């Protein structure tokens, strides 16, 4: 399934940016696309370096009671693995669609004979253009059940957590003036959603335990079709034989498509909370291994027991890495 795979929802939203009059911001007149770029330029991305670990609150976050200021607003949401927001000015022009010159020498006279349009490299080809810039919103979020309603829950939760900042950004997009609450925001994002046809997920470390569908796909439906077709051929007419063959191929194709559309199961411990806990344990385990060099077995056993008691590997709620940070 394109949007859902391995316990993740891969969200892609394209929102047309207004091409209307200039907007005033901090005493300056900006176009809507400039206002969006200006907003994105001052949004905190994450606590990526010691310089961003200051406890001094961000001006835009003074009203938000969050545990890590100067951090991305998406770090408040414990379902968000990654979020990317950017402006698409126009479609990329990849150049003229090339043709084979030798083939054109043979084909063009035939086209002219039948009154068709021949190849002329002097005349520019048509190419796609956007009628307005678009704001792209791409996110990878937890969806353990693999159901569409989990996206709605995520969008409503995101709005509840950061409606003020989101409004400051999306107000420059068409249709946002109708957003008044979490449900409206969900519909607004859904309206601009496009299918994610190439999701990326690499949490599986071993082959996933997929169900063996060999009999279900390649044996049961085709054999059923063959039996029914042969019976019809014997009782009615031999014309049912080619119909049986077509039915056999269609049944096999249909079952392959049905099972191929199902998402992979979720990898163990691959939700965001578990991933953050793993990063926390990884960093602390490295420090433990360094300090434990050269100690005897009894002392190593004692220290490791203290490590387990302090860091609690099975507790993903406490003693963990905060979202939006590069170190615990």
Helices and strands in order, then pairings?
Elements: E1 4-5, E2 8-16, E3 23-25, E4 28-30, H1 32-42, E5 80-88, H2 101-113, E6 134-142, H3 149-170, H4 182-191, H5 214-218, H6 220-235, H7 240-260, H8 272-291, H9 297-311
Antiparallel strand pairs: 1-2, 2-6, 3-4, 5-6
Helix pairs in contact: 3-4, 6-7
Protein described:
The protein is of the alpha+beta class. Among the domains are: 4-91 and 128-191, no CATH class; 214-260. The longest helix is centred in the middle third of the chain and has 22 residues, at 149-170. The chain is extended and about 85 Å long. A hairpin with a 2-residue loop joins strand 1 (4-5) and strand 2. The strands form two sheets. It has a four-stranded antiparallel sheet, covered by helices on one side. The protein has a two-stranded antiparallel sheet with strand order 3-4. Residues 55-68 have low confidence and may be disordered. The protein is built from nine helices and six strands; from the N terminus they run E-E-E-E-H-E-H-E-H-H-H-H-H-H-H. Helix 3 crosses helix 4 (182-191) and helix 6 (220-235) runs antiparallel to helix 7.
Summarize the structure.
The chain is α+β, with helices and mostly antiparallel strands. The chain is 41% helix and 11% strand.
């Amino acid at each position: 399934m394109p949007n859902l795979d391995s316990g993740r929802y891969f969200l892609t939203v394209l929102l047309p940016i207004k091409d209307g009059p200039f907007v005033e911001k901090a005493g300056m007149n900006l176009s809507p696309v400039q206002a969006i770029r200006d907003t994105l330029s001052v949004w905190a991305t994450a606590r990526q370096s010691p310089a961003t670990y200051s406890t001094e609150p961000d001006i835009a976050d003074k009203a938000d009671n969050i545990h890590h200021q100067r951090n991305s607003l998406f770090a408040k949401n414990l379902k968000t693995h990654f979020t990317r927001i950017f402006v698409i000015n126009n479609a990329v022009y990849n150049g003229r669609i090339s043709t084979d010159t030798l083939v054109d020498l043979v084909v063009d006279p035939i086209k002219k004979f039948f009154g068709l349009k021949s190849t002329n490299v002097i005349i520019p080809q048509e190419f796609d253009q956007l009628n307005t810039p678009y704001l792209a919103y791409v996110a990878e979020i937890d969806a353990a059940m693999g159901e569409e309603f989990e996206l709605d829950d995520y969008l409503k939760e995101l709005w509840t957590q950061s409606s003020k900042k989101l409004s400051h950004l999306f107000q420059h997009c068409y249709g946002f003036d109708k957003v008044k609450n979490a449900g409206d925001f969900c519909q607004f994002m859904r309206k601009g959603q496009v299918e994610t046809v190439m999701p990326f997920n690499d949490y599986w470390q071993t082959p996933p335990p997929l169900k063996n569908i060999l009999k279900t796909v390649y044996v049961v439906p085709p054999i059923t079709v063959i039996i029914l077709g042969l019976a019809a051929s014997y009782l009615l007419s031999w014309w049912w034989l080619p119909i049986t063959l077509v039915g056999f191929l269609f049944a096999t194709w249909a079952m392959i498509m049905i099972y191929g559309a199902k998402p992979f199961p979720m990898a163990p411990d691959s939700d965001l909370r578990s991933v953050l806990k793993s990063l926390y344990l990884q960093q602390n385990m490295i420090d433990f291994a360094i300090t434990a060099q050269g100690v005897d077995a009894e002392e190593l056993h004692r220290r490791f027991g203290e490590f387990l008691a302090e860091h609690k590997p099975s507790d993903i709620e406490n003693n963990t890495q905060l979202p939006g940070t590069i170190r615990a």
